[in-house]
Design brief:
With 270 residues, this protein is α/β, with parallel strands linked by helices. It has a single domain (10-268), classed as NAD(P)-binding Rossmann-like Domain (Rossmann fold), CATH 3.40.50.720. It has 10 helices and 6 strands; from the N terminus they run βαβαααβααβαβααβα. It has helices at residues 22-32, 43-48, 51-58, 70-84, 99-102, 112-136, 163-185, 208-218, 226-237, 262-268; strands at residues 10-14, 36-40, 88-93, 139-149, 188-194, 248-251. The protein has a 6-stranded parallel β-sheet with strand order 2-1-3-4-5-6, sandwiched between helices. The longest helix is centred in the middle third of the chain and has 25 residues, at 112-136. It is globular. 43% of the residues are buried.
Length: 270
């Protein structure tokens, strides 16, 4: 159901790869709520994914940008502001990549060169995006930025590997830059700690099916879907949450605050 919560608002969505992507679902939800959008992803992802299909569906331009390249980000904002005829009102940062996970390296034996790339792409890219927007005055007053994260930033999930460190850094950037952007222009910056979700990237984590089943049993409401997350993003982009900033918001069916459930005990006693 559309309440036109984002009518008249303009936003940039980072990270839509295919229909499984939370970014993809968020773009659809924002469009349904009246927003105008620009889609962006890394050049290699643009070649591999299906983003043009989404762009056609929501009538949005696609502007490629490498999130570790400041010139690319400056060009992205310049073109977006030209397209919109002004600043943007919201941004979704849905970006994550681990070379050590791809290469099958355990946390205790990570390649530090790979690790630097993981941190740069998965976490410091948010700082780069915010810094570029900050310096260009690209986000309108009371704008909203949301980054997607996971509870492995607070708790140990061994197979999540170095991405746990990247998410912890991402959440720190959210708080720190959120302070500065709030003071400068009332822009709010938050992260959403989402349930494990069957995206193309998420499914690549070792033992993902077991991961999903455990979280489902540990969450009083069950796992939050990608569509649920997209709707939560809409609420944070809307004017209904203007005083929420610098927060890591758990969107996980209650998993984060549940010690144990009857379903898990029952499974363990079998």
């Amino acid at each position: 159901m559309s309440n036109q919560l984002l009518k008249g608002k303009k936003g940039i969505i980072f990270g839509a790869l295919d229909e499984k992507s939370i970014a993809w679902k968020t773009a659809l939800a924002c469009h349904a709520q009246g927003a105008q959008l620009v889609l962006t992803n890394a050049p290699v992802a643009l070649r591999m994914g299906e983003i043009n299909k989404l762009a056609e569906q929501i009538n949005a331009p696609v502007i490629g940008a490498d999130v570790v390249n400041m010139d690319d980000l400056k060009n992205l904002f310049e073109q977006s502001m030209q397209h919109f005829g002004g600043g943007v009102d919201f941004i979704l940062h849905s970006i994550g990549m681990s070379l050590n996970v791809r290469k099958g390296k355990q946390y205790t034996e990570i390649d530090y060169g790979f690790n630097q790339k993981t941190l740069d792409i998965s976490a410091m890219s948010l700082h780069r995006v915010l810094r570029t927007a900050y310096e260009m005055d690209a986000i309108n007053e009371w704008g909203s930025v949301v980054a997607l994260t996971y509870i492995a930033a607070q708790r140990v999930f061994p197979d999540y590997n170095e991405m746990a460190d990247a998410k912890a850094l991402l959440e720190s950037v959210t708080r720190s830059f959120g302070y500065h952007y709030g003071v400068k222009k009332k822009v709010r910056v938050n992260s959403i700690s989402q349930s494990p979700t069957r995206t193309t990237a998420g499914s690549g984590v070792k033992g993902f099916d077991g991961f999903m089943n455990y979280a489902e049993k540990m969450s009083p409401l069950g796992n939050a879907s990608g569509e649920d997350c997209a709707n939560y993003c809409v609420s944070l982009f809307s004017d209904m949450t203007r005083m929420v900033t610098m927060q890591n918001l758990f969107h996980d069916g209650g998993f984060s605050f549940t010690g144990v459930t009857a379903a898990v005990i029952e499974q363990m006693e079998k």
